[in-house]
Amino acid sequence: MDPQRSRRYPFISQGQPALLSVERTEGHYLITPDGTRILDAAGGAIVCNIGHGRAEVAEAVGRVLAETTYVVPPFATESRVRLVERLQDDWLPEGITRAIFASGGSEAMDAAVRVARQHHVAAGRPGRWKIIGRELSYHGVTLATLGVGGHGKRRAGLEPLLLDAPKVPACYPLRCSLCRGEGGCNLACADALEAAIEREGPETVAAFVAEPVGGSTGGALVAPDGYWPRIAEICRRHGVLLIADEVMTGFGRTGRRFAVDHWDLVPDLIVSGKGLAGGYAPICGIFAREEVVAPIAETGGDVMFYTYAAHPSACAAADAVLAIVERENLVERAADMGALLHERLGTLRESPHVAEVRGLGLLQAIEFVRDRDTLEPFPVEAQFTMRVVMSAMARGVFFYPGGAEPARDVLCLGPPFTIGPEEIDLMVRVLEESIAEAAAGM
User: What is the CA radius of gyration of the chain?
Assistant: First the structure.
């Protein structure tokens, strides 16, 4: 292959050079063709949990591929059954009994919306079809999930094709207009859900979709303790299904098995995938209460599968990854290292361009602003977050850029759970230098 051609990535923009060429991955590092080692402080797109290059996972995948290549999703294979049994025995919240799979988060969230609608139709409530989402949210790039989501940039230009889903405010205390001047969060953003349900007509609302901890769109937004219990109570009272989008947060990222565990919450459906196979295979799960699936089954309905869902090799990878997480107590380690990372990031609060450091476990984020006192953002054209990311990469660390209006400039950290204190110190030092350089360049 032409070496120059191999450095281009047409998927992003035809002929545009890739930001980075990666020849291999190892432990916590991305390694370029010239041997440069870049610390993966983002875990890719907040995906990697056990680190890169674990031979045990590759061997498990190889064994399964030698025995079963493609098998249609409704058929049972050893790796599929083994994964589901592990999930039911060791991972899923009590009451969550059913599982189907997809190849990624967008597909899985789309399927969850479909299941919610099918549930109500099968239960004799065909009038319930509306899905309420939140502002400053992201649930995928299918037309259904873009419609439910609140990521303006990713919706731009596609609006005529999108479901006009009702939206309620995200729980975003830094800029919340609902509780400003109240001396703290008054949970008005939760009460806004009830107002929306009543406005739309409870008999028309099928489900409410939200991320228990916001992902890269708003930057690791963590709600006050009372928010999720109130949301769950509102949904139950109005017969609205609660769908928790844990694509990014599930399987230990926040220091618990699932982010909803922080509030002892068991939603009707959980969607989670990035940590399921830790980047070793494309797989995402849609997990449901028995009561959600029962009406569909009783009426002879079916939830249509995706062609590559629950591919035997992907199930083998997920099973091997979860086995490592369990054996090495990595959920507990994510909690410990996350607390350490959050503490060390506290030094950045002195920067005039850091509005907030926030997060839970090993999902942490920094929101940048032009002026910390007024929360004035940098101009869009400044691309401040990307300036910080590129400066950090030049220093040997990769961070994940995020943000959407009004959280315009957000940088996320989501390293593997196996990260250590020395690497955390490196991440923080490089961030301090990179923020200073980016600001100086303005």
Answer: 22
Phi, psi for residue 271 in degrees, rounded to 5: -115, 125
The 10s digit of each residue's pLDDT in 36-66 is 999 999 999 999 999 999 999 999 999 999 9
Q: What contacts 24+ positions apart, CB below 8 Å, involve 295-302?
A: 295/119, 295/122, 295/123, 296/115, 296/118, 296/119, 296/122, 298/122, 299/122, 301/118, 301/122
Boundaries of every domain in the chain: 5-53+329-440, 56-327
Domain 5-53+329-440 CATH superfamily = Aspartate Aminotransferase, domain 1 (3.90.1150.10)
Please give the pLDDT value at position 1. 36
The band of 312, judged by pLDDT with boundaries at 50, 70 and 90, is very high
pTM of the model: 0.94
Q: Give me the architecture of the 56-327 domain, per CATH.
A: 3-Layer(aba) Sandwich (3.40)
Average of per-residue pLDDT across 203-226: 96
Q: How many CA atoms lie within 13 A of 235 on its CB side?
A: 25
